[in-house]
Design goal:
Blueprint: E1 3-5, E2 8-10, E3 24-30, E4 35-41, E5 46-51, E6 56-61, E7 65-70, E8 87-92, E9 98-102, E10 107-112, E11 117-122, E12 124-125, E13 128-129, E14 136-138, E15 144-148, E16 168-172, E17 178-182, E18 188-193, E19 199-204, E20 211-216, E21 228-232, H1 234-238, E22 248-250, E23 256-260, E24 263-267, E25 273-278, E26 285-288, E27 293-298, E28 301-306
Antiparallel strand pairs: 1-3, 2-25, 3-28, 4-5, 5-6, 6-7, 8-9, 9-10, 10-11, 12-13, 14-15, 15-16, 16-17, 18-19, 19-20, 20-21, 22-23, 23-24, 24-25, 26-27, 27-28
């Protein structure tokens, strides 16, 4: 498999403890339309990721590469109502079951691997249809947090099928209740937890307000106070670097690895910009495996790189 020296920006000495100087980017596969939503499945020793326009979930394994895992991954039949019909973000619940943001069906679903059917966990808020769930994460108690921008709708915010007035971040309780966490972000996208699950990180993929937010959570899982901007990438977007704040993952020490304009950005838990891995195409998301390798999706590719940290 092709490898190339990683183009790493090193803004502080702290990045040296995370990304080795001899780190190489390893191209695992390419030829996708828009790869997204990676999740490492330890029990199967594989990576699952999505190609939203192709309505497909792929599986990557060391010994046989990329194979179709589920197609269609989203809308199965009927008149297409949007521009992105497949699933987007993937996650595991506290039992290891696969959760997905299903753009095409505008819902959060759990995949039943016995027969490859879906259980819809949420598709409405206050009896109005969700927009197009984008990314999600599950805490240790089974609470699912997810973002719901308008990207799966054909006309975005102006689409007549859009029922939610705003684009929101939601909490889905294990018993089915959907609670609005915040609707103050114009384009909520990627989502992640701090290691102690007391801070929720959310990216906003709006070129006019390209930020990452940190939202403190109380014991009940709801915000204890208003979120704060921990990094504003709007000037980076304006400089012409490809991409917007998107998916992210957090290592065991609380450092955030976030895809955004120009590649994968590394932040400490206070929002300090440590550096990052530069890409010349937009990146969409990233996740760790069990050995500290970071997998990066975006554009038409799937890459990985060995780091000295991990989940």
């Amino acid at each position: 498999m092709p490898k190339l020296a990683a183009n790493v920006e090193r803004f502080t000495d702290a990045i040296d403890a995370l990304i080795p100087y001899d780190a190489e980017l390893e191209l695992l596969s390419r030829g996708f339309v828009w790869s997204e939503g990676p999740v490492w499945v330890s029990s199967a020793d594989c990576l699952l990721f999505t190609d939203i326009p192709r309505n497909t979930i792929y599986r990557w394994r060391e010994y046989d590469g990329v194979q179709v895992f589920l197609r269609p991954s989203g809308l199965m039949s009927g008149e297409p109502l949007g521009r992105e019909l497949g699933s987007n973000g993937l996650a595991l619940d506290q039992y290891g079951h696969i959760l997905m943001c299903d753009h095409g069906n505008r819902c959060i679903a759990r995949l039943n691997l016995r027969n490859f059917t879906k259980n819809i966990l949420a598709d409405t808020y206050r009896d109005l249809k969700l927009n197009s769930p984008n990314d999600l994460i599950c805490d240790s108690h089974g609470n699912i947090y997810f973002t719901d921008p308008c990207y799966g709708l054909a006309m975005g915010n102006d689409d007549p099928a859009k029922e939610q007035e705003k684009n929101g971040v939601y909490l889905l309780r294990p018993y089915g209740e959907v609670i609005l966490v915040t609707d103050e972000l114009s384009a909520p996208n990627g989502i992640a937890f701090s290691p102690d699950e007391k801070t929720l990180y959310v990216s906003n993929s709006d070129p006019e307000h390209a930020v990452w937010m940190a939202i403190p959570l109380a014991e009940n899982g709801l915000p204890s106070e208003r979120g704060r901007i921990f990094f504003d990438a709007t000037p980076v977007v304006a400089s012409g670097r490809p991409g917007l704040p998107d998916g992210m993952t957090v290592d065991r020490m609380g450092n955030i690895f976030a895809t955004g304009p120009g590649g994968v950005h590394a932040f400490d838990s206070d929002g300090g910009h440590l550096g990052g891995i530069v890409f010349d195409k937009p990146t969409s998301n990233c996740t760790f495996d069990d050995d500290g390798r970071l997998y990066v999706t975006g554009s038409d590719f799937l890459y990985r790189i060995q780091l000295t940290t991990g989940r």
